[in-house]
Amino acid sequence: MTPLSPIIQRLIDNMVYVEGGTFMMGSSLEDNDECNPDDYHPAPKERPVHQVTLSSFSIGRYEVTQEEWQAIMGDSPADFKSGKMPVIRVCWRDCQTFIKKLNKLTGMNFRLPTEAEWEFAARGGNDSHGYKYSGSDCLDDVAWYSGNCFDDETESLEDGTHEVGKKSPNELGLYDMSGNVLEWCQDWYGEYGCEVQVNPTGPLSTFFKSLFSTSCNCRVLRGGCWAQLDKGCTVSIRHFSAPRLRHAFVGMRLAY
Question: Confidence class of residue 30 from pLDDT cuts 50, 70 and 90?
Fold first, then answer.
């Protein structure tokens, strides 16, 4: 096999092993103010809390960066150009193309994390201290979000994304799982059930009416971003988007 570039080798070296375990997924009644209802889902999307057991897996220490994306795809679609910043403006389908090419190059089996894997890792896995955000109850310690990306002089948000790994990590040594950019998960978006689950992968597909009164299949987004309030950055908060859409605040994190 052809030797890998230092950039891709570093990406591989920065995968973090997460020992499997059991946790309660979702937002509890005590976190009512942090839940995220919308017009079509009057009940918070983070409920009911339910028990999930996961096998061991590995997940990226950092969000995929622009230089890593460029090393595989040949260019970076990001607005805010810097190799160490997370790649953005990549849709779910773009991520699948990136992963396919990366796996062909490395002979590995990278993928997007499932939603359950993402939340378990963000909570700190079996080492969790029960923080509201990934790694702390103080969001400024662990995340780039609207509260610290706002320019008081211009009364507007600054450039947005920041270099990965500049805030404190969580209990597993994972960075930016709250804030910076939202991250695609493998799952289709769907409402939670009450049943105990083992290695869930989400619904096969789900349709719902969007704010624009069109039907669309949506994939799960997790983690909060630089443009969101603190309520959008908790470990349990759920977001979603159609897999074909690209956003200036959405990137990805690898798993295998």
Answer: very low
